[in-house]
Amino acid sequence: MQELTQDKWREELNKSDNAVILDVRKPEECAEGMIPNAIEIDILNPEHFMSEVEKLDKDKDYFIYCRSGNRSGQACSIMEQLGFSSTYNLLGGMLEWNGEVKQK
Fold first, then answer.
1. Which among 4, 43, 66, 75 is annotated as catalytic?
2. What burial class does residue 23 get, using C-beta atoms within 10 Å of its C-beta: 0-12 exposed, 13-18 middle, 19+ buried?
3. In this predicted structure, what is the pLDDT of residue 45?
4. How far apart are CA 57 and CA 25, in angstroms?
5. How many CB atoms lie within 10 A of CB 34?
């Protein structure tokens, strides 16, 4: 897992040709706005989270965020234990995000 500042996270995301953005917040948090093209998988629903993560391609680059960076860090750790090779945690999460946000 790489813990990246917003600028570095965005820079790495733009460089990747196989990036996947994961929003691991609760549905009501996602309803307040998400980073465009993000896939919503609530980490606080462990069975659903594990089920959905198991369907993902382990060779892609996963750019993961939550509200503050804590849950996304946990998601990165879990995914690494499952064999995902590239996970990037957005430090500060949506609380510090100043980029584009879309409504769900």
1. 66
2. buried
3. 97
4. 21
5. 21
66 is catalytic: yes
* Contacts with 54 (C-beta within 8 Å, 6 or more apart), sequence order: 82
Tokens of 63: 């750019």
- DSSP states along 71-92: HHHHHHHHHHHTT-SEEEEETT
**List of domains in the chain:** 2-96 (3.40.250.10)
pLDDT, one tens digit per residue, over 68-77 is: 999 999 999 9
Tell me how far the alpha carbon of residue 74 is from its chain's centroid: 10
- Looking at the chain, how many residues does it have? 104
pTM of the prediction? Answer: 0.96
DSSP type of residue 31: T
Residue-wise pLDDT for 24-80, tens only, equals 999 999 999 999 999 999 999 999 999 999 999 999 999 999 999 999 999 999 999
